[in-house]
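lol forgot to send this yesterday, sorry. struct tokens for the thing we talked abt
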């Protein structure tokens, strides 16, 4: 054992990887429906291994923390800037109210109970499950004009308070938002979700794990005999059914297959492959002629493309308008915004940076993709020039500081990385030809970056962790309940009675403003619907930024 301890002390990088392995293992353990998660698991593993007095250079945690913050900004950048637009202002306003309330309640509670700046910052980070506060508050404490020993004590108090309040904050808020808040509003979440689903799309959403055998679009073959199609061009046939999206995809003429364009003239006796929505295709088809079986005609390859919307002329257009302009022969399969799949209808408006998954004949799909924006083709390469310059310039921006009321406020270099991640993420959505970070690489920057930072924090706080929990643990449990609940109660009252939000959307806003992804999942499970995500994406982006910014602010206010 002595040799093992000596190895870890001499080679702290091995201690970091051991902490990550143990932390991810602890984080995956489930207690009923609850798990600690990898962040708390890694923190606890770091504290445990940190009892062996492992010394790690602080530069290590800074590097990984900057990677994590840049990745966070990159992911939410498009939605953050979208939140500044008029149609998202109610969600933006409510997010700001909830986040400001979180800061005010945390400061008031900390001052009443005599907590120091480190404990107050950790309490805010844990109660709102915003791990980034640990880093930004720690950077701010290290800039204070205090003795080095006092700085170390305050910084070590952050993970102590975070560990205690995170458990309370996560478990309580997940239950509070998905179970108690709907009852406080006097609603049945499932019924409200069904009503909203019917209102938006005219149909109810299925329970999770249940698939419908019905397919919206179908292909059928018809022999042309009716006057609707004989001696008319493809364009004329497609336009002869008002309000119906119908496309002539292929033609069999005298035994030969033809790939038509809009000017191709259809002759009597041709067999044409028609694509339309299933509930319309038979009614429409009977005016063309009798249906026939022709597998070779109907068996052609469909292209499925992920297209990022960058065409500024289409921003704000409805999906119906998009279909009328560029949707010939193309069906929309998914609409993804801010990494979340969004339920959509014909009247859903598209935003810059939205990812549209479309399918159709290759010619039509590629034509539509070119008109909409940029095809996001699979690639394993990360644009490290983009990442490196983003963090570098972000660090320079973060070094700037202002004095407010005699208090020095600065983003710190890490906060600057987050801000530049926002800007670069937005630029990527506008010009997606550069700055690609594939999803697996983004996961490494995001999850491994944060957990490595937390691992080093835990290793450093290990020796003082137990004493800190013994000193403040019991009081922190009760304070965390108040700090976690009050801002959301304020958000509930404002959103329900002043902004008059739909309760399903309102609950999505609350989970997003509190950056509580677990809460969103619980809401969707309770509602048996994906609709809460409609209120989640913009608040999640804005909440990430504001709560991260509260790190140095709460340190300044407590100091």
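and heres what i got for the seq, position by position
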């Amino acid at each position: 054992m002595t040799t093992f301890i000596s190895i870890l002390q001499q080679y702290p990088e091995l201690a970091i990887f051991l902490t990550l392995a143990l932390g991810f293992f602890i984080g995956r353990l489930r207690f009923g429906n609850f798990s600690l998660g990898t962040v708390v698991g890694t923190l606890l593993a770091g504290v445990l291994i940190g009892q062996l007095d492992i010394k790690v250079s602080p530069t290590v945690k800074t590097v990984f923390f900057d990677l994590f913050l840049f990745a966070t900004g990159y992911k939410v950048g498009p939605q953050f800037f979208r939140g500044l637009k008029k149609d998202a202002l109610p969600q933006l306003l409510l997010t700001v109210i909830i986040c400001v309330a979180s800061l005010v309640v945390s400061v008031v509670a900390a001052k009443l109970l005599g907590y120091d700046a480190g404990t107050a910052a950790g309490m805010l980070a844990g109660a709102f499950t915003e791990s980034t506060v640990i880093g930004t508050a720690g950077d701010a404490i290290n800039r204070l004009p205090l003795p080095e020993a006092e700085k170390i004590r305050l910084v070590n108090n952050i993970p102590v308070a975070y560990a205690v309040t995170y458990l309370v904050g996560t478990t309580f808020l997940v239950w509070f938002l998905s179970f108690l808040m709907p009852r406080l509003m006097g609603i049945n979440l499932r019924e409200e979700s069904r009503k909203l689903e019917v209102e938006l799309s005219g149909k109810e959403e299925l329970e999770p794990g249940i698939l419908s055998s019905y397919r919206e679009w179908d292909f059928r073959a018809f022999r042309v005999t009716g006057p609707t199609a004989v001696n008319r061009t493809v364009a004329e046939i497609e336009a002869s059914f008002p309000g119906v999206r119908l496309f002539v995809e292929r033609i069999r003429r005298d035994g030969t297959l033809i790939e038509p364009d809009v000017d191709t003239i259809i002759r009597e006796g041709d067999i044409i492959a028609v694509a339309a929505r299933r509930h319309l295709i038979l009614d429409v088809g009977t005016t063309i002629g009798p249906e026939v079986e022709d597998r070779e005609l109907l068996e052609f390859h469909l292209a499925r493309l992920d297209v990022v919307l960058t065409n500024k002329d289409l921003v704000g257009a409805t999906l119906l308008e998009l279909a009328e302009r560029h949707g010939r022969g193309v069906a929309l399969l998914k609409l993804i915004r801010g990494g979340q799949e969004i339920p959509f209808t014909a009247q859903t408006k598209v935003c810059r940076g939205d990812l549209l998954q479309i399918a159709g004949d290759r010619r039509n799909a590629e034509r539509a993709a070119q008109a909409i924006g940029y095809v996001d083709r699979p690639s394993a390469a990360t644009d490290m020039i983009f990442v490196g310059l983003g963090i570098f310039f972000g660090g320079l921006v973060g070094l700037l500081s202002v004095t407010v009321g005699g208090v020095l406020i600065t983003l710190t270099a890490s906060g600057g990385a987050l801000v530049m991640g926002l800007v670069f993420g937005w630029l990527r959505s506008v010009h997606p030809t550069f700055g690609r970070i594939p999803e697996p690489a983004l996961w490494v920057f995001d999850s491994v970056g944060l957990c490595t930072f937390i691992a080093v924090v835990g290793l450093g706080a290990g020796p003082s962790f137990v004493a800190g929990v013994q000193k403040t643990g019991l009081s922190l449990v009760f304070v965390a309940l108040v700090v976690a609940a009050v801002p959301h109660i304020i958000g509930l009252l404002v959103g329900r009675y002043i902004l008059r939000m739909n309760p399903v959307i309102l609950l999505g806003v609350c989970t997003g403003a509190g950056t509580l992804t677990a809460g969103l999942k619980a809401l969707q499970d309770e509602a048996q619907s994906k609709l809460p995500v409609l209120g989640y994406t913009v608040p999640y982006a804005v909440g990430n930024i504001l709560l991260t910014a509260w790190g140095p602010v709460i340190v300044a206010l407590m100091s």
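Residues 202-213 have pLDDT under 50 and may be disordered. anyway ping me if u want another try
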